[in-house]
Structure formats: structure tokens, C-alpha cells
């Protein structure tokens, strides 16, 4: 059972909160339409936007895009009030990939991963740590874990990999 | 080959012998055997001694309901398990098995003296015998009873095995892979459902494994089984053997325990021994079948006496004959088939006793053709033999009169009292049970779960009936989930249908007081015990259970409950449903702690959060303490230093020059949006409107009850942006509380909350030289006292890293807190340490932080407050914005009892002898000379040795404390009572001049 766990390079991460008419304006400033349903994701180039709540989105982008995003949204703040909070360092990203990726995640994640289609993402738990789980492909997941929880999560994933290697 | 194994027969591998040992003796079995089948193949029936009377016992079943054949198994150091069911444990090479509850040996056991003292150990024995003298209970009775109680020895060493857990989701979970379960799984899988099928045995098939002669859909049972399993695999059904459904929890959550390695000769190094599955299933089909009931008669526990169905299983699954000359006693048709199969395999059936007067003619006919003598309308009244049955006493019964008996020689006795539907998991759902008067058994009724019981589990009998029922259950599950499903009830030839009648104790000519007719084998409860319990006033089965312990063993009365109920009901002259049925609880069979703990052991016992500075602190030799989920550096001992010495040094160094502290764990919440200031005004007691951007303020958060919930310094970074800090432990709670108010009370406010606790690493610099250390590292900012006064905040760069810089103090010294993005925390820390070297910068931990703040009288929420302390009680009345129209908790603060005299108020406490440190939590009294029980006026909340002050200091909550300044109180502690004087809480630099340098 093949599965790989890698810690991902840092990216720019923002928590975006906006509602009502501001949603469209913020989307326009970012050059996309903010997805309207929880779990849906929209991409423009390297910018990914994941809907986590009725008025909550997670933005990820390359680090060098950070200043541009901040400036773009600051420009519309007056007519579209919102909160754009830099949480780049709050989380550490892991990629879990391979045919056994979903099995490995099922060791700590109570969600039905069959129901998480590629291209979607959700806020969920991995062994009592709150995480954002992205499914980038049938056998490819990304998990954003709060920094202080990351060593625990990482080492559980390693135990899981050993378990899968044992083949039982 | 032993004389009890039939060459080539069964599902075991006759070409693969497996060596194992039992009680030190080496035996040979076959791959596919259980320990029980292998021992039986070697002619060994004696497998253990009973719990109370130490009676010799053998396997009575071939499944997980086994009450007798409980053995110790081991696989090297730490890998020992007591009470393994010999009937379930698969044979593996080198398995070491031992019998239990015997000394010096299984054949001669000194404890068997209890059996001779049988009349002493009647029901309620403990309650009657150990009543008095009272003092004997603690010193004599309880220790002796405890030493004698229990079965098997718990391993004393740590368990080196790994245990795993997983979540699983399914459209349909089928529990039990007998004919009904297989049919249900097939129907549902054909309709496209995600199906999981589990079975506790080593292979699937259930009763079909013991009935190969049945023909289903034109194929012999075993061929049909193989074909169905092949089809299920092809349809993507998850098939899980060796997997016990241990519990049925709310909303179709089922716990499964999968045994992964106990059957393997040499398991892979990193393989887990067991795996706990938490399954959430849209629908559940319980197809757990039925459990055969023993008959209750004198000597029904002798080795060699076993259930007829078990003998049939040993024959067909394992190719093992449980004896050469079998007697059969039954109240149900099913035992006839067991007798026929054994006869056909060459066993001499010495007699078939049927308690019924008129058995079915076709069965009698088949028996006659095999030359089996059937004694209808007869009873079995005794067995003989020491460690193994050698004869059975058979009596004719007519009109309730028991005639004289005759002994018939045999080497095994197969009994069947009929079958009890297995309703354990159904009972876990709180499903109702319905008494079926005709079948004299409980059947499943209504349940709130999406759960369906199929097959013998709901009282059906015969393969045609249960297969059709299972198929219908699968179709129903599919329809419920919106899938079209076509039923295909399998056609069955050579079916084995039948019925029976329920029995109490079998009629006997023996005095009831002498009969050793066992109802509960595992707890050694006899029919006499149950009748005695009723005579002594136990009217409910729940009382009978507790008085006699029937059904209280680890098998939860799988064999005994209905027999016990029938006897109690008879004694009470009531119908069984009026007497009740005891409740089944998870787990279905005993489950290891390891499986339940899963990965949560050792370093993973509980999630531990670490800060970005943690690795540096560990390298530096810090001692850590847990704070909420975090581990925090407690103090940094130098070689030879104990905690007290280290803390004293850290305190003095910080006050003399500069100290550095990892404050990263403080909760941080970004409050942003046009209505941020209005939100802050409503949440916190303080006024925020006039706080200018770039300034900070101490914030106090109350609950609606007016009591202090949290506090922290809050900075205003812009008109519409606040950086809120909370206590370490309160971070999540405060955010949740804020979100609650925002979403439910004030959804109109345009403000949003984001946790940034982990985005920032925070270094706190404190001490008169703090500015000297920091200044050279700060870019683009004047941090002089004039330009950047106490309680300021700004954004700048520190050591080249973008930072939020606070000037504040939790120590009473000039202080700064530098927040940088977490990944840069270690860089910042190293830069500060390097810059501080010239000033002997001293890293300090949470203990020194506590002492320094206590010297200043700063409270710690949760230590100096306990959820009943108001701002006024804590001396924080100044933090309330009195002009504000409202804030959370405001109204409660004016309740009469919140302003009444007599409240406990936070004060300082100085012992008369400064060398004495009071215990935190110590009670405080006004006059220790008063008689007990004495009135306590308060308690110590914080207490430390202050190196700075050269004496101990303490804080305390004392009734009316604020108006008792200077008074003496008394603090009783182990050894002696100390006198202490009430003071203010600011012990050090009360004017606060040092913070404003």
C-alpha cells in the first residue's frame, strides 16, 4: 500500500471574511467568483479560494503574491468591508499522496472521504486536531494543520505509514 | 493422525500440521484449527476449572459465546492474554496456552475443595456470610475475596504490541456472514450500495460452515458460499473476517474490533495486533444468528457435555469428532441433524433423548434408519465421570412423574435446549424486545436506529427462510437509500428446518437441593441458586442477576439468560416478560484496552502542542510543564540547581537586568471590521472607543453571570482592527464565546474574528535593560519612553523580521512583547539572545513568570479566580467602563448578592514567618481555637517564595478581605497552623514606576 507524506513549502494563506454585497466585490478584486457553497473551491492561476463557511473563505497563493492580494483588497475595503487576516504561519501543509492516501487519512479523520470529490476541501479533524483537508486528486490530498499540532499529526501519519507497510 | 480427526474432512489444512503447547505439553493440530478443535482432536476435553467451585470444564460451544474453555495465551514477554476463548483463538505455530484457575494442576486442583463445600456457597453467600463482625470486612473478608475472585492473571508488563484505529463509512453494514448476512450483502451490493460485511470468525459462512449438505441455488452449501464471496469481492464489498461488532452506538455508529495478528505464526514487525473501526453506516443489517441454549440438569457441566450444534461444527469445520460414543439430549429438532451427521461420520449414537413426547415423525424415521435409539418423553437426570463424562442417567417422564433412571455409557453428551436469537447489538440501540409466547423467546421489536434484524436473529429457522429474509433485508436497505433492487430469494434443497420447546431444569427424580444443574457456567450459578434467590424475595430478573451473579460474567449470559429467566419466572408463577430481561451492554465480547486506546499511548497519549521556541528550550535543558494542551518551559535549571534555586536566579536576573520569556502560547484573536470597536465595547468590560490606534489596554471579559472569564492586553492597530490576547488555556473558549455572541446576538455587526494564536511567535523581554537589548534590533521606530510609552503597540521590523511590537509588562519591569510570524520565531529568539548576551540576558519559564506577576499582584484567571469572582472581588473595578450602556455581564454585576457584603475578595497575605510558604489551596480561618468543624473564611490562591523580597508572598480570597487590611488570619497546614497578615496585593514597586522607565 503506497502512500507518501511530504511537508509542503510555505505559502501565503489568508482567512477572508465577507458577506452580502461584499462577496461579489471581493471576488472581482481577486479576479474570480468566490465559491458559494461550503467545500467548493475556485482557482485563478496559483490563487486558490476554498469556501469554509457562509461568510468564510481560505485563500492560498505563492508567498510572492501576498502583498498584491493585500493591496487589491485594501483598495475595495471602503465599499466592501471585509476581514483579510494573514494566517500564513498559523498552519503547516502536508501532501498525502498515493493509492493508500485515503486509507491513511481514515486513521484520524472521521469524514467520509469517498464523499469528498477531487477539487473540493473541508474543515475537519485529524485525531482531535482541527485541519483543512483539500482533495487535489483521487489519490492526492493536502492537509493544513495548525503549527503546534503538526508534530503530533506528522508522527501519527508516520505510524500509519508503518502500519500500511506491514500490509495488515 | 489422532483418532478423533477424520482424514481429509473439514476446512482445515490436513497437509499443514501446527505444533502448540497446552499446560506445558506439546500437541499437534492443523492449520485452520482453533485451540479448542485441536485439543478435541487430541481427545482433550478438560480445558479449565470453573470460577467458583473449580469444577473441571471443557468446551461447551464452538464460538465466542464459550463460557468454559477460557485459557491464557502468550507469545513472549508482555504478550500474554488471560481468558482467551479457546473456541475462537486460531492455532498458530508455537502458541503457548495454559489453563486457568487451578493449582497445582488442571487434573488435580486444590481449589476444587470449594466444590465439596457447595452447600456453603449458595446464592447471596457474600451478603449472608461476611456481615459481621464489621471490622473483619476491610482486613480479612475483602482481601481474601478479592484474591479468590477473578479469572486468569492480568499481564504485569507493558503491552509491546501496536493497536490501530480507522474510520469507515458504508451505505450498508452487515454484521454476521452467515446465510442471512451473505444474502443481505449480495442483494445490496447488486443494487450498487457500498457494503461492508463483517464476521467474528476466521472465515465467512456462519452456520453454512457446519451444514455442508444443504444445497442452495443448485450448489452444495460450500460451493455456493465460495461463489457468493467471489461475487461480493467483485462487487467491491469490504469483507472483514476476525472482526467483532462490539457495540452499536448512536446514529448507526458501530464499533468493530478486528484481530489482525493473533492467528499469525510470526506477525510483521510493525503490524498492529488489533484495529478498532468506527463505522458510520447509513443502514445496518444485524444477521448475528442464534445461540444454542444448554439444557439444565445435574452434571451438565462435565467435560464432554457440549452443545449439539458445537459438535456438528467441530465435525464439519474441523474434521474433529468430539467423541466416539455420543449420547444426545434435546428439546429441539436441530440436535437430530447433529446426531445424524455424527452417526454418518462413524460415531456411535448411544441414545437420543428427546424431552418432547412426540418428536417429528420424519426425524424419528431418519433416526431409525441409522439405528439410533430415540427415547421421547425422557429426561436426563445426571452424568457421571471425573474429568470427562463416562455415562448419562436417563429417566422416563410421564405426566410429570419421573421414573427410575438407567445409566447409559458415553464419552460425550450433546445437548440442545433450542436457540436464542442473538439480540445483543440490537439491545445496544435501546430497541424494544417482544416476547414470543409460542417460541418462548424474545424477538427484536422497534428501534430508533436505521437497523434491521434478519434471519435466525429474529427467530426464523431453516436455510430457505433465513436466506429469503436476508435477501429481503438487503433489498430493503437499497430501497431505503433510493436504489432499485431486485430480490432473488435463493432456492434451497435438503434444508434443515425444525422447531423445539423451551425447557426449565429438566425433570428429575433427584432432590433439588442436591442437583448441580448449571445455568451459568462461567459464574457457576445453578438452578437451585436462582430458585433460592426468588424464595428470598428477589422478584425482578435484575435482582436475581445481582443476587446470584447469573449473566454477570464476561459472556453476559449468552447461554444462560433465557434459562435463568425461565426458571425465575416459573418460581414466581409469572410469564417471562413480567420478570424481564437484563440489559446487554457493549462490548459484545471482551475487548482489549489496547484496541480501545489505539494510537493514544506513550508519546501520543494526548496531543501535545509545542511552540516555535520549544526546540530551543529543550536544547537549553528546560524542564517543561503542561498548560492546557501545550507544553511550556517551566524553568531552565543550570547544573546542580533545583527548581527553587533556578526560579530564584531567573527572578533576580530579570529584575536586575533582563529576562526573556516565550509567550507564544497566549491566545490571539484578530478582531477586524467597521464595527470592531462596538463589538469590543459589548464584549469586554472596558471602554474601547477612546483607545487610540497604537495604544493598548488591559481587557477584562466576564460571563453573563458577571464573573471573570478571561483577561489579556488588547492592542488597537487601526480604527477597525484590534489584536486581542487571551490566556493560554482560554484561547479557544474565548473565541467560541465571541463567535456565539456575534452569530446569535449581534449578527448585524460588521466584524470578523480570526484566531492568530499560531500565526505569531512571541518573545517577552522584561527588565531594566530590556530596551538596551531591543533597541539595536528595531528598524524604523524610536522605542524610547517618550516615543513609545508603556502600553503602546506598533508594527515595525525587529531583527529584520516584520513584527508587531507591544510595550507592556506582566512582571512589573520595563517590558516588550515582540510578535513575529511563527516560522521566524527561532530567528528572533536567537537574535535577542545574542543582543542580550552583553546584559546577561536570562531565559525564564512559566514559574518565574508566575512569581514575578504575583510580586506585582497581577492575577491569573483560573488560579486567583475560580468562576465565582467578580471584577470588584478581584480589585479590578477600575477596568469597568462605567459609562458604557452595556457589556456582557454588566447586568449581573448589580444583582443584590453581587454587591452584598461578605463576598470573598482577593488580597495579599504575608506570613508572620517569612520563611514559611503557604500551600496553594490552604483554607483560612479567623480563630484556630474554635471547635471543629471550624468556619473557613477563605483560601490561598497563589503562593511563592520571592527571591526579590527575601520572603514568601501569597494571594488569597478572603471574606470581606478588602476591608480587613492588616488583620491577622490563620492558615492550618499539615504539622502546624501559620499566622498571616492581610495586605494589598502589590508587594513590589506598588507605584509601577519600574514599568515606565
TrEMBL record, chain A:
Gene3D superfamilies: Heterotetrameric sarcosine oxidase, Probable tRNA modification gtpase trme, domain 1. InterPro entries: SoxG, TrmE/GcvT-like. It holds the Pfam family SoxG. Signal peptide: none annotated. It comes from the Bacteria. This is Sarcosine oxidase subunit gamma. It comes from Rhodovulum strictum.
From TrEMBL, chain B:
GO terms for biological process: tetrahydrofolate metabolic process. SUPFAM superfamilies: Aminomethyltransferase beta-barrel domain, FAD/NAD(P)-binding domain, Folate-binding domain. Residues 171-426 form the FAD/NAD(P)-binding domain. Residues 59-82 are annotated as: Disordered. GO terms for molecular function: sarcosine oxidase activity. Residues 516-598 form the SoxA A3 domain. It holds the Pfam family Pyr_redox_2. Keywords: Oxidoreductase. Gene3D superfamilies: 2Fe-2S iron-sulphur cluster binding domain, sarcosine oxidase, alpha subunit, N-terminal domain (3.10.20.440), BFD-like [2Fe-2S]-binding domain (1.10.10.1100), FAD/NAD(P)-binding domain (3.50.50.60), Probable tRNA modification gtpase trme, domain 1 (3.30.1360.120). Residues 615-884 form the GCVT N-terminal domain. Residues 904-989 form the Aminomethyltransferase C-terminal domain. Belongs to the GcvT family. This is Sarcosine oxidase subunit alpha family protein.
Amino acid at each position: 500500500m503506497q502512500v507518501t507524506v511530504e511537508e509542503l513549502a510555505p505559502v501565503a494563506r489568508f482567512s477572508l471574511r465577507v458577506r452580502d454585497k461584499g462577496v461579489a466585490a471581493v471576488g472581482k478584486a481577486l479576479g474570480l467568483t468566490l465559491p458559494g457553497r461550503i467545500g467548493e473551491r475556485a482557482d485563478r492561476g496559483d490563487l486558490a479560494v476554498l469556501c469554509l463557511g457562509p461568510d468564510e473563505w481560505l485563500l492560498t497563493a505563492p508567498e510572492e503574491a501576498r502583498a498584491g492580494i493585500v493591496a487589491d483588497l485594501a483598495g475595495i475595503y471602503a465599499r466592501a468591508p471585509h476581514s483579510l487576516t494573514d494566517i500564513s504561519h498559523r498552519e503547516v501543509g502536508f501532501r498525502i499522496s498515493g493509492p493508500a492516501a485515503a486509507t491513511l487519512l481514515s486513521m484520524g479523520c472521521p469524514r467520509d472521504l469517498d464523499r469528498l470529490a477531487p477539487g473540493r476541501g473541508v474543515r475537519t479533524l485529524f485525531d482531535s486536531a482541527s485541519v483543512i483537508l483539500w482533495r487535489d486528486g483521487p489519490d492526492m490530498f493536502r492537509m493544513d494543520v495548525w503549527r503546534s499540532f503538526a508534530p503530533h499529526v506528522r508522527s501519527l501519519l508516520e505510524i500509519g505509514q508503518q502500519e500500511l507497510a506491514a500490509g495488515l | 493422525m489422532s483418532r478423533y480427526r477424520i482424514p481429509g474432512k473439514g476446512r482445515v489444512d490436513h497437509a499443514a500440521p501446527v505444533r502448540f503447547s497446552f499446560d506445558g505439553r506439546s500437541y499437534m493440530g492443523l492449520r485452520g484449527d482453533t485451540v479448542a478443535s485441536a485439543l478435541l482432536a487430541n481427545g482433550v476435553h478438560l480445558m479449565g476449572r470453573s470460577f467458583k467451585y473449580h469444577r473441571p470444564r471443557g468446551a461447551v460451544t464452538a464460538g465466542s459465546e464459550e463460557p468454559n474453555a477460557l485459557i491464557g495465551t502468550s507469545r513472549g514477554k508482555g504478550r500474554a492474554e488471560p481468558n482467551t476463548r479457546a473456541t475462537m483463538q486460531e492455532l498458530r505455530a508455537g502458541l503457548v496456552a495454559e489453563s486457568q484457575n487451578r493449582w497445582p494442576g488442571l487434573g488435580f486442583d486444590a481449589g476444587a475443595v470449594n466444590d465439596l463445600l457447595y452447600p456453603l456457597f449458595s446464592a447471596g453467600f457474600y451478603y449472608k456470610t461476611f456481615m459481621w463482625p464489621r471490622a473483619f470486612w476491610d482486613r480479612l473478608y475483602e482481601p481474601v475475596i478479592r484474591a479468590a475472585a477473578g479469572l486468569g492473571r492480568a499481564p504485569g508488563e507493558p503491552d509491546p504490541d501496536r493497536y490501530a484505529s480507522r474510520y469507515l463509512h458504508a451505505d450498508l453494514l452487515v454484521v454476521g456472514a452467515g446465510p442471512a448476512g451473505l444474502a443481505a450483502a449480495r442483494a445490496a451490493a447488486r443494487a450498487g450500495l457500498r457494503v461492508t460485511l463483517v464476521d467474528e470468525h476466521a472465515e465467512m459462512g456462519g452456520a453454512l460452515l457446519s451444514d455442508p449438505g444443504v444445497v442452495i441455488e443448485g450448489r452444495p452449501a460450500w460451493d455456493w458460499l465460495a461463489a457468493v464471496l467471489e461475487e461480493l469481492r467483485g462487487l467491491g464489498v469490504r469483507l472483514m473476517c476476525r472482526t467483532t461488532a462490539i457495540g452499536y452506538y448512536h446514529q448507526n455508529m458501530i464499533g468493530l474490533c478486528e484481530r489482525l495478528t493473533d492467528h499469525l505464526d510470526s506477525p510483521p514487525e510493525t503490524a498492529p495486533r488489533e484495529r478498532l473501526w468506527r463505522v458510520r453506516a447509513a443502514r445496518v443489517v444485524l444477521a448475528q444468528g442464534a445461540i444454542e441454549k444448554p439444557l439444565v440438569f445435574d452434571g451438565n457441566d462435565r467435560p464432554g457435555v457440549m452443545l449439539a450444534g458445537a459438535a456438528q461444527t467441530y465435525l464439519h469445520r474441523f474434521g474433529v469428532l468430539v467423541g466416539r460414543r455420543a449420547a444426545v439430549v434435546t428439546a429441539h429438532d436441530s440436535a437430530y441433524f447433529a446426531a445424524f451427521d455424527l452417526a454418518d461420520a462413524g460415531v456411535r449414537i448411544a441414545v437420543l433423548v428427546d424431552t418432547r413426547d412426540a418428536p417429528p415423525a420424519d426425524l424419528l424415521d431418519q433416526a431409525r434408519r441409522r439405528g439410533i435409539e430415540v427415547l421421547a418423553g425422557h429426561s436426563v437426570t445426571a452424568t457421571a465421570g471425573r474429568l470427562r463424562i463416562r455415562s448419562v442417567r436417563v429417566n422416563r417422564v410421564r405426566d410429570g412423574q419421573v421414573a427410575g433412571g438407567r445409566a447409559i455409557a458415553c464419552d460425550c453428551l450433546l445437548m440442545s435446549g433450542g436457540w436464542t436469537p442473538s439480540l445483543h447489538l440490537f439491545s445496544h440501540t435501546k430497541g424494544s424486545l417482544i416476547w414470543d409466547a409460542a417460541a418462548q423467546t424474545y424477538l427484536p421489536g422497534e428501534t430508533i436506529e436505521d437497523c434491521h434484524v434478519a434471519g435466525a436473529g429474529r427467530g426464523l429457522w431453516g436455510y430457505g427462510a433465513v436466506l429469503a429474509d436476508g435477501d429481503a433485508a438487503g433489498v430493503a436497505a437499497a430501497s431505503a437509500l433510493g436504489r432499485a433492487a431486485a430480490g432473488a430469494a435463493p432456492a434451497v434443497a435438503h434444508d434443515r428446518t425444525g422447531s423445539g420447546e423451551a425447557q426449565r431444569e429438566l425433570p428429575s427424580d433427584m432432590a433439588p437441593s442436591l442437583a448441580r444443574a448449571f445455568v451459568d457456567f462461567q459464574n457457576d450459578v445453578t438452578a437451585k441458586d436462582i430458585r433460592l434467590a426468588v424464595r428470598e424475595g428477589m422478584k425482578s430478573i435484575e435482582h436475581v442477576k445481582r443476587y446470584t451473579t447469573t449473566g454477570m460474567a464476561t459472556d453476559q449470559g449468552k447461554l444462560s439468560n433465557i434459562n435463568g429467566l425461565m426458571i425465575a419466572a416459573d418460581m414466581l408463577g409469572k410469564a417471562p416478560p413480567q420478570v424481564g430481561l437484563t440489559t446487554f451492554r457493549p462490548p459484545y465480547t471482551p475487548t482489549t484496552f489496547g484496541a480501545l486506546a489505539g494510537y493514544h499511548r506513550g508519546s501520543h497519549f494526548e496531543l501535545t502542542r509545542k511552540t516555535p521556541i520549544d526546540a530551543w528550550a529543550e536544547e537549553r535543558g528546560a524542564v517543561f510543564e503542561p498548560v492546557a494542551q501545550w507544553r511550556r518551559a517551566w524553568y531552565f535549571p543550570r547544573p546542580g540547581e533545583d527548581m527553587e534555586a533556578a526560579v530564584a536566579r531567573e527572578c533576580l536576573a530579570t529584575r536586575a537586568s533582563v529576562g526573556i520569556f516565550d509567550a507564544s502560547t497566549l491566545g490571539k484573536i484578530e478582531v477586524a471590521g467597521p464595527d470592531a470597536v462596538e463589538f469590543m465595547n459589548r464584549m469586554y468590560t472596558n471602554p474601547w472607543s477612546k483607545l487610540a490606534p497604537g495604544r493598548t489596554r488591559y481587557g477584562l471579559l466576564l460571563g453573563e453571570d458577571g464573573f471573570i472569564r478571561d483577561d489579556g492586553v488588547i492592542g488597537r492597530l487601526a480604527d477597525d482592527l484590534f489584536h486581542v490576547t487571551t490566556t493560554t488555556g482560554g484561547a479557544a473558549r474565548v473565541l467560541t464565546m465571541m463567535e456565539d455572541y456575534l452569530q446569535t446576538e449581534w449578527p448585524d455587526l460588521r466584524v470578523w474574528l480570526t484566531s492568530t494564536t499560531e500565526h505569531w511567535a512571541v518573545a517577552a523581554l522584561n527588565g531594566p535593560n530590556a530596551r538596551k537589548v531591543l533597541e539595536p534590533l528595531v528598524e524604523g521606530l524610536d522605542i524610547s519612553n517618550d516615543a513609545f510609552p508603556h502600553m503602546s503597540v506598533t508594527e515595525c521590523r525587529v531583527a529584520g523580521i516584520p513584527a508587531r511590537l507591544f510595550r507592556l509588562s506582566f512582571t512589573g519591569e520595563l517590558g516588550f512583547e515582540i510578535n513575529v510570524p511563527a516560522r521566524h520565531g527561532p530567528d528572533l529568539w536567537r537574535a535577542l539572545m545574542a543582543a542580550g548576551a552583553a546584559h546577561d540576558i536570562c531565559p525564564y519559564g512559566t514559574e518565574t513568570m508566575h512569581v514575578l506577576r504575583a510580586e506585582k499582584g497581577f492575577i491569573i484567571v483560573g488560579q486567583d479566580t475560580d468562576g465565582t469572582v467578580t471584577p470588584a472581588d478581584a480589585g479590578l473595578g477600575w477596568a469597568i467602563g462605567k459609562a458604557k450602556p452595556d457589556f456582557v455581564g454588566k447586568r449581573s454585576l448589580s444583582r443584590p448578592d453581587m454587591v452584598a457584603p461578605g463576598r470573598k475578595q482577593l488580597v495579599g497575605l504575608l506570613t508572620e514567618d517569612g520563611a514559611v510558604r503557604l500551600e496553594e489551596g490552604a483554607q483560612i480561618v479567623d480563630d484556630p481555637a474554635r471547635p471543629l468543624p471550624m468556619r473557613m473564611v477563605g483560601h490561598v490562591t497563589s503562593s511563592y517564595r520571592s527571591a526579590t523580597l527575601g520572603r514568601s508572598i501569597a494571594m488569597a480570597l478572603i471574606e470581606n478581605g478588602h476591608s480587613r487590611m492588616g488583620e491577622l488570619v490563620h492558615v492550618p497546614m499539615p504539622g502546624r497552623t501559620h499566622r498571616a497578615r492581610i495586605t494589598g496585593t502589590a508587594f513590589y514597586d506598588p507605584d509601577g514606576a519600574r514599568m515606565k522607565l
